[in-house]
Design brief:
Elements (H helix, E strand, L loop, with lengths): L1 H20 L5 H10 L1 H4 L5 H18 L1 H6 L11 H8 L4 H21 L1 H15 L3 H15 L3 H19 L7 H20 L15 H20 L5 H9 L7 H26 L5 H9 L5 H33 L4 H41 L8 H11 L1
Helix pairs in contact: 1-4, 2-15, 4-14, 4-15, 4-16, 6-7, 6-14, 7-12, 7-14, 7-16, 8-14, 9-18, 10-17, 10-18, 11-17, 12-13, 12-14, 13-14, 14-16
Length: about 400
């Protein structure tokens, strides 16, 4: 039994590394395949093993998927917002540091959730019942505040609605996996093209870690954990939207602090989804949907066991993610910059075509154009997250 448990966790971690590193191969896809083949798999293993595989994979994915977002410009939805400070550090030669701070956020937020599991069991049902009718209006107020605080009201409004209308149309279209071309265009390819023409060489990557205060780390960790709780319990509100909205309450946060925030938010979003499954009997993401298909309900003992597994896997993922990030940083130092940019863009186009055919490529082209326009407007890049915020607001209203 112990050998089987170790094997399952190792396989789950390997699967999470693959889904985290390769754009377009998502944990939802692997979870769906696992459920599809579960009748065959259950002849050779237990139901608990399949559930633990999903938990190990999802936890690992929440750590590792920062790497392609920062180094390649191919964002998962959860890390779209973090690309901006992540790229800022990357172009200072601190790509490894950018990944390091997301790992700090992920792991310590995971520990914080374990410590707060009992109050969260009471808090989450209360939050859902007391705020669900007003969430749409609250989001409108937060977006308005975001625009006013930018001090470029007209340009910020234009950027928000340009991305928002594009997002609404794309997300309500028949395009397969629409988030891939939408986010990759707005935050990936557009930034890569701008840097391609503005930068001739890639900054020398180092493993140096700039120091930030304990207070900054605690503030970012708390904000990311709180935002992660909110995104896990409210349908339609994802990690990317949560990161941008949390930023409005912490305007003075540094790039490193924001990366801690997004790392915390991404991991908490999955972990809290386990609590919502237990307390509300609601599946808020693809991994939990798969678990719900395999086991219709869980006990408090199951929940505590899953949390322990997540912490063990998370501790292993700290070393795995930083090892990969170190290798990626060193690799960047020997590769020609412009060829790397071209190669990444070609990879994104190919993955987009594989997932969504020519429709996906067309969305990628539109989103890239919108991203370039937003960059030219000179407003904060997170207004591009209007592509998800506006559809979310319309969903709640």
């Amino acid at each position: 039994m112990q050998f089987e448990l170790i094997l399952i966790l190792v396989l789950g971690i390997l699967a999470g590394i693959i889904t985290g590193l390769i754009p377009g191969i998502h944990i939802n896809l692997v979870s769906t395949l696992l459920v599809t083949f579960s009748p065959f798999l259950l002849q050779h293993t237990s139901l608990l093993s399949l559930v633990l595989f999903i938990i190990a994979m999802s936890t690992t994915h929440s750590f590792v998927d920062a790497i392609p977002s920062i180094f390649l410009g191919a964002p998962d939805a959860a890390y779209a917002a973090s690309m901006l400070p992540g790229h800022r550090l990357l172009h200072k030669g601190q790509g490894y540091a950018a990944v390091y701070w997301t790992v700090v956020g992920s792991f310590f937020a995971l520990l914080l959730c374990v410590l707060l599991i009992v109050p969260l069991l009471k808090l989450i049902p209360f939050l859902v019942s007391s705020t669900k009718e007003f969430l749409g209006y609250l989001l409108v107020v937060l977006v308005a505040l975001m625009i006013v605080l930018s001090k470029r009201i007209v340009k910020s409004t234009l950027a928000f609605f340009l991305a928002g209308i594009l997002g609404y149309v794309v997300l309500n279209s028949s395009v397969q996996e629409p988030l891939m071309p939408l986010l990759s265009g707005l935050f990936g390819v557009s930034l890569l093209l701008v840097s391609f023409f503005e930068t001739s060489t890639f900054p020398l990557q180092t493993l140096h870690l700039p120091a930030i205060s304990k207070g900054e780390q605690a503030k970012a960790l708390g904000a990311g954990t709180l935002a992660g709780v909110c995104t896990a319990i409210f349908p339609g509100l994802g990690p990317a939207q949560g990161a941008v909205l949390a930023l409005q309450f912490f305007k003075e946060i540094t790039s490193e602090g924001f990366l801690i925030l997004t790392g915390a938010l991404n991991t908490v979003n999955f972990v809290i989804s386990l609590i919502t499954f237990y307390t509300l009997d609601k599946a808020r993401n693809g991994s939990i949907v798969a678990i719900n298909t395999l086991v219709k309900s869980i006990t408090f003992f199951d929940l505590a066991y899953f949390f322990i597994v997540s912490v063990i896997v998370g501790a292993m993922c700290v070393f795995v993610t930083l090892f990969i990030a170190r290798r990626a940083s060193l690799l960047m130092n020997i590769l020609p910059y412009k060829k790397v940019v071209i190669g990444v863009i070609v990879l994104i186009v190919l993955v987009t075509f594989f997932l969504g055919s020519w429709q996906g490529v067309f969305v990628l082209l539109l989103a890239t154009s919108a991203g370039i326009v937003i960059n030219a407007l000179g407003v904060p890049k997170h207004f591009g997250m209007g592509c998800l915020l506006l559809p979310t607001i319309l969903y709640f209203l």
